[in-house]
Amino acid sequence: MLQIQRGITEIQLQLEAVLIQLQRHAQEQRHTRMLGRTNGQHAVPLQFSTKLEVWIAELKRRRDNLQYATSHGLMVQVGGPVGDLSKYPDNCGPAVKAAMADALNMGFADPHWQNARDGIADIIMALGSLSASLCKIAQNVNLLASSDIGEVSEGHRNGRGASSSMAHKKNQRASEFAEATARLARQRAEQIGELTLHQHERSGGAMIGEWLVIPEVFLLCSGALMWTEQLFTGLQVHSDVMQQHIEQQAASL
Q1: Domains of the chain, first to last
Q2: DSSP string for 42-63
Q3: CB atoms within 10 A of CB 145
Q4: What is d(CA 219, CA 76) in angstroms, rounded to the nearest whole number?
Q5: How far apart are CA 28 and CA 251, in angstroms?
Q6: Helix ranges (DSSP H) in the chain
Q7: Residue 63: which pLDDT band, with cuts at 50, 70 and 90?
């Protein structure tokens, strides 16, 4: 639980860094217009900042969801062999548990949660949901950077995104890595539900499975946030191309 606590703090810091970059672009592009796209087809023009603000609002909801899950799921585990505190002398077990929770800035459950893993599951699923949003955002940026659209691009450095066989290519690496790690985090998070199926007062097989799933979800989600921050830190917006697409659509009507 201490590792989860530290991991959540790191995830929250990374998410705030992503939001700062998105908010910067939304402010800078508040007058930039682009074509909307629905069902894979051109729709009507909209502000580019609107697209960014939708992503910002979604990530803030994911942030709130993670905070809520943390407030309910981050709990000390003090209970003895079967969770009932029966081995503590003079009925001091509840006081010990409450004091430990206070010292570690965590919650606690009565009578115990060693075979009720819903709190851990809520935290991991919140990370999975955050990762799903990051995956969607990265994928959409990559689509806007495609050769056929070209309305945004990543800030390239020599050698980054280069093709071994096509010298003209500059592949969009940050969005690709953000999508890949976020996709894997979401998929891995879905496995936590299987690990809530404990038998009786403790189930070793289910609990041992957590040792693999929990750290991998944290690592993959953190990686997705890292790549997403890099993506928006270096993102270049081609407002002239956006305007050309609007004019082309108007001329075709």
Answers
A1: 2-74+117-252 (1.20.200.10), 76-112 (no CATH)
A2: EEEEEEHHHHHHHHHHHHHHHH
A3: 21
A4: 22
A5: 28
A6: 2-28, 48-73, 93-104, 118-144, 173-189, 204-233, 239-252
A7: very high
- CA torsion sign for 91, 95, 101, 104 is negative
Residues 6+ apart with CB under 8 A from 104: 1, 2, 5, 76
Integer Cα distance of 8 and 162 in angstroms = 35
Determine the pLDDT at residue 166. 46
Tokens 């990686």 correspond to 223
Q: Is 96 helix (H, G, I), strand (E, B) or coil?
A: helix
- Distance (Å, whole) CA 152 – CA 30: 15
**pLDDT, tens digit (0-9, with 9 covering 90-100), for 77-116:** 998 888 889 888 999 999 999 999 999 999 999 999 999 9
Residue 172 and residue 225 in contact, taking contact as beta carbons nearer than 8 Å: no
Helix (H, G, I), strand (E, B) or coil at 68: helix
Read off the pTM: 0.92
The tokens describing 248, both together, are 């082309």
Round to whole Å and give the CA distance between 160 and 156: 6
- 194-199 LR contacts (CB < 8 Å, sep 24+): 195/117, 195/121, 196/117, 196/118, 196/121, 198/115, 198/116, 198/117, 199/115
| Cα distance from N-terminal residue to C-terminal residue, the chain | 60
